[in-house]
Amino acid sequence: MSDSSAAEPAITRAGVAGPTASAPGPAATVPGPAATGAGRAFGWRLMTPLLLGSLLNPINSTMIATALVAIGQDFHVGAADTAWLISAMYLSSAVGQPSMGRLADRAGPRRVFVAGALTVCAAGLIGALAPTFTLLIVSRVVLGIGTAAAYPAAMAMLRAESRRVGRPTPRYVLGRLSLAALGSAAIGPTLGGLLAATAGWRAVFAVNIPLALLALIGAFAWLPADRKPAHTARAEPGSGSGSLDPLGIALFAATLTCAMFFLLRLADPRWPLLAPAGGLAAVLVWWQLRHPEPFIDLRMLARNRALVLTYLRHGLTYLVIYCVLYGFSQWLEEAHGYSSFHAGLIMLPMSGAAAFCSIAGARTKGIRAPLTVAAACLAVGSAVFLLLQSTGPLIVLLCAGALFGIPQGLASTGNQAAVYAQAPADGVGAAAGLQRTAQYLGAITASGLIGLLYGQRASDSGLHEIALIGVVLGLLLLVLTLADRTLRAGAPRTDG
């Protein structure tokens, strides 16, 4: 058995208690140098490039919002066409996150992080110079793939650092990744509007170049070199170990594409898409069960019920969050009559509460408690939105938004810690990628629901229907969280 796998029993995963003091293995008997390294572990040199890289995907998801009108005017396309700039990145990110995570587990997280940063630079250059709208969509696809590398690579890097120093990754370290995502997503629209107003919409793409270069420089300077994974070293020739399963990735991408096209048009369902989506999903399952090193390890997921439940909770949570996030802002403008600038200011308490609760959630020791509070706040916050009217006072709108920010921060850090605790030791990157895929599916479904419930214009009745869905799903999440015994402190984890 390799050193890393031998040390694994002695390392307690984040938020899950375990008998580390008496556990046998190298992690319990490491001499002075390792202890010294542990003191320097998870410091600013390691975290700076990881945080820089991890903010690129969420900030690009929201930064484009305030540049869409200007882009449409320059290329003479309407809102239906510019929406592809959003959908294209969501789709490529949903496929790219688990793909890059799998690659990080096999080729090494530092290599994947560096490759992702270089891809982001290329995407920024393509977008900044794009002469046609089609090429601009291509740049968003490339940007989704490039930015998808950072988060799963960061999770795999932290797991490797945990093995190296013989102690679990602190929750506050994982919380920093969540805070980077939440904070950058919150400032994205403001930054995009500022860039578009002062330097033109192409600056929204070009700004990725210096950001990615900073992450790249930090990666070369401070991220530790990759070590060959133990399972790859033990692989038999021809066994398929280490394969990236390109057919599995292609089938996964095709299935997601069909599902996305269907979910985005719930107001006018494209029922014929269900047949190819179901057929592709069936072929994907058959191929993953047949492949010796599948892209998605379905057998591991079948054994790891805790991880599957975490994906389900995360996807449903963000379905509600995105419904309210996008539905509330649109309602503020169209039903309440606020400008886009003032609507953004009204939503600042929501972003601030999310950031504060992300920090607070990162400082908790358990996983179940913050997730329980998050589910309860989703239900209560959605119930408050049931009472909102287009003639309501400003203070009520501010308080409603702040209340809904609480579950954003707690659910983000809680589910992230749960994935880190429940994923197989050599598959944290891929597991983290699938967590983000569940989040993007929630976002895509939320977009379709908003279009279905609002129709041509946001209204009080449409907001109340969205809120009712939030109440029902919040209560469902509360039941799922309370009934999940694997979230209790000391519960054994299941490795695939």
Automatic annotation (TrEMBL):
Coiled coil: none annotated. Residues 46-486 form the Major facilitator superfamily (MFS) profile domain. Pfam families: MFS_1 (PF07690). The chain crosses the membrane at residues 50-71, 112-131, 137-158, 179-197, 203-223, 244-264, 270-289, 310-329, 341-362, 369-388, 394-411, 437-454, 466-483. Residues 14-30 have a biased composition (Low complexity). InterPro entries: MFS, MFS_dom, MFS_trans_sf. Residues 1-30 are annotated as: Disordered. GO terms for biological process: response to antibiotic. Keywords: Antibiotic resistance, Membrane, Transmembrane, Transmembrane helix, Transport. It is found in: Cell membrane. It is a multi-pass membrane protein. GO terms for cellular component: plasma membrane. GO terms for molecular function: transmembrane transporter activity. This is MFS transporter.
